[in-house]
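[recover] target loaded
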């Protein structure tokens, strides 16, 4: 797999298009992520993708099996015959590769989960935002805040370099604050004493 393309996830962000959703390296990394828990045959792996993404992403056999074959050729997975089916198992080298690229793998999985929630929100929100919130766990205010931020960024798309730097600083502070883990109930109660 090509480790030089590790920033492709960041460049794309969470945007998934209608066509090809992931490149071959990204698909292979996600396959290793699924195989880390248990061996599986191709159909089972496709089902895992489908379940994780709530039907949004289900790689075709023409994409899935060549990726599995490449993992085998690289020594990151091995095949075990089980009747007529080939079960794929992650190897020690595959586990090491997955650990080395754990952050990237998790980002790819998070993108799939987000796409699934977004599709669920969109299908439910047409009937009721309360139903969409119940189905996804997203508050309507959370969705509105995201839309407001996106609109603000679009409105400033022609900003000069000084204004872009100001916006960058704001977004970097916001991203840092968002990434910080929220305090637990125990942390809050100890602060009050």
């Amino acid at each position: 797999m090509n480790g030089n393309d590790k920033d492709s996830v960041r460049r794309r962000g969470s945007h998934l298009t209608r066509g090809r959703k992931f490149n071959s390296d990204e698909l292979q990394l996600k396959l290793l992520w699924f195989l880390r828990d248990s061996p599986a045959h191709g159909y089972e792996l496709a089902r895992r993708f489908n379940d994780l993404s709530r039907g949004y992403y289900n790689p075709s056999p023409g994409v899935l099996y060549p990726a599995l074959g490449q993992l085998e050729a690289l020594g990151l997975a091995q095949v075990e015959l089980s009747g007529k089916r080939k079960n794929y198992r992650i190897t020690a080298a595959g586990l090491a590769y997955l650990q080395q690229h754990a952050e990237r793998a998790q980002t790819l999985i998070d993108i799939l989960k987000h796409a699934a929630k977004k599709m669920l929100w969109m299908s439910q929100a047409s009937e009721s935002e309360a139903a969409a919130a119940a189905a996804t766990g997203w508050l309507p205010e959370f969705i509105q805040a995201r839309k407001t931020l996106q609109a603000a960024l679009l409105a400033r798309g022609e900003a000069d370099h000084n204004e872009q730097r100001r916006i960058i600083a704001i977004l970097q502070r916001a991203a840092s604050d968002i990434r910080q883990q929220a305090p637990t109930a125990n942390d809050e109660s100890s602060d009050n004493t």
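[recover] notes: Residues 3-14, 187-193 have pLDDT under 50 and may be disordered.
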